[in-house]
Design brief:
about 325 residues; alpha/beta; Rossmann fold; 2 domains; seven-stranded parallel β-sheet; five-stranded parallel β-sheet; globular
C-alpha cells in the first residue's frame, strides 16, 4: 500500500502558521518520493482560511470546524482527528516543533502507541521509510533514525526547510469534529503579551536575555534593544525560572526552537539545553563578561564586555542611525 503522509497544520489568528507551511512542504516531498499521497489537516473554530492556505502546499486538506477550540486546549481535539485519519489509512504524521505540535505528538503516542522521531532537522524517504536526521548534544552529533514499523510520527524543527507551494492548489474536504479520547482542558484566561506580534519562531531578529540580565528591570534593556532592532525578545530557562519573563519567551530544549537571521544574546552562558533551541540561527552575536562561556562555541561574534554598558550603547547607536 502506498504511504499516506499527513501534515498537521496550526492556526494563528485565522491563518496558517509559517511552520505549518514547512511541515506541509516536507509531507508533500516525502509523498512524492515514496509514490504516495500527502494530506493536510486543519482543526479550528474557523478553519476555512488556514485550510485554503494549506491546500496550496498539499493536494488534499481535511478541514474540521470545531467550535470547542474557541475555549479549549487544541491537542486532544487535533489528536482525535489525526487518530481518525490513521484509521482511514494515513501511515505517517508530520507536525511542527511548537507548543501545540509537541502536545499533539505526545497525546498521539499515548493514544496510538506509535513511535515518535522528535526535533527533526530533515526528513527524507529512503528504503521504503522516512529517515529523520536531528542534531543532538548541542550540535556535536547528528542522528539518523527511522521506524521499525510501517507507521510513525515525526516532529519538524522550524526553519530547517524552505516552504514551497505545490504547482497547483489542492482540494478541501470539510468534516464535523470527532469526539476526543481524552478530556480537553478549558482555557480560563488569555493574556496578550507585549511585543508578541511576531512569534519567536517567525522572528528574523531575536534578542535574548540570560541569567546575566539579573532582574525584571534588566529585561527592559533587552526589550528596548529588541524594539530598536525590530526584533522579538527571548529568554533562557534560568531567566524564566527566576520569574523575570513569561515562559512563552523561553528558547531551548523545553521551550521554543528558533532560527532567526540574527540571534543577539545578552548575559547568556549557553547551557546545552538552550543551545539546541538556537544554534541553527544564521548569525549569533553574544555579549558576556566571561570569555569562556559555553555559548562561545556557537557564536559568530563574541563581545567580551558588560552587557549593562554594551546594550544601552548599542540601542542608542541604532536609534541614532534610524533617526530616533
Amino acid at each position: 500500500m502506498p504511504p499516506r503522509i499527513l501534515a498537521v497544520g496550526e492556526v494563528a489568528e485565522g491563518s496558517l502558521t509559517k511552520l505549518s507551511t514547512e511541515v506541509a512542504t516536507v509531507a508533500r516531498k516525502l509523498a512524492e518520493a515514496a509514490g504516495g499521497e500527502a494530506v493536510g489537516l486543519v482543526v479550528d473554530a474557523a478553519p476555512d482560511q488556514a485550510a485554503a492556505e494549506l491546500a496550496t502546499y498539499v493536494p488534499k486538506v481535511v478541514a474540521v470546524t470545531n467550535p470547542a477550540l474557541s475555549n479549549e486546549v487544541p491537542a486532544p481535539h487535533v489528536a482525535a482527528e489525526v487518530a481518525r485519519l490513521l484509521e482511514e489509512g494515513v501511515t505517517h504524521v508530520i507536525l511542527g516543533v511548537s507548543q501545540d505540535g509537541r502536545d499533539v505528538a505526545g497525546t498521539l503516542v499515548g493514544l496510538t502507541g506509535l513511535g515518535l522521531l522528535a526535533n527533526a532537522d530533515s526528513v527524507e524517504w529512503q528504503d521504503a521509510a522516512p529517515v529523520s536526521r536531528a542534531s543532538v548534544l548541542a550540535g556535536k552529533a547528528i542522528t539518523s533514525s527511522t521506524f521499525t514499523g510501517a507507521r510513525g510520527i515525526v516532529t519538524l524543527r522550524p526553519g530547517v526547510v524552505t516552504a514551497e507551494a505545490a504547482p497547483s492548489a489542492g482540494s478541501v474536504e470539510t468534516r464535523d469534529p470527532a469526539a476526543p479520547a481524552v478530556p480537553a482542558p478549558k482555557v480560563l484566561d488569555r493574556v496578550e503579551e507585549a511585543g508578541a506580534q511576531v512569534s519567536l519562531e517567525d522572528a528574523r531578529i531575536v534578542v535574548v536575555g540570560g541569567r546575566g540580565v539579573g532582574s525584571p528591570e534588566g529585561f527592559r534593556m533587552v526589550e528596548e534593544l529588541a524594539e530598536a532592532l525590530g526584533g522579538v525578545v527571548g529568554a533562557t530557562r534560568a531567566s524564566v525560572d527566576a520569574g523575570w519573563i513569561p515562559y512563552a519567551r523561553q528558547i531551548g530544549q523545553t521551550g521554543r526552537v528558533v532560527k532567526p537571521a540574527l540571534y543577539l544574546g545578552l548575559g547568556v552562558s549557553g547551557a546545552m539545553q538552550h543551545r539546541v533551541g538556537m544554534q541553527a540561527s544564521q548569525a549569533i552575536v553574544i555579549v558576556n563578561r566571561d570569555p569562556d562561556a559555553p555559548i562561545a562555541d556557537v557564536a559568530d561574534l563574541f563581545v567580551v564586555g558588560d552587557l549593562f554598558e554594551v546594550a544601552p550603547a548599542l540601542t542608542a547607536e541604532i536609534r541614532a542611525r534610524r533617526g530616533g
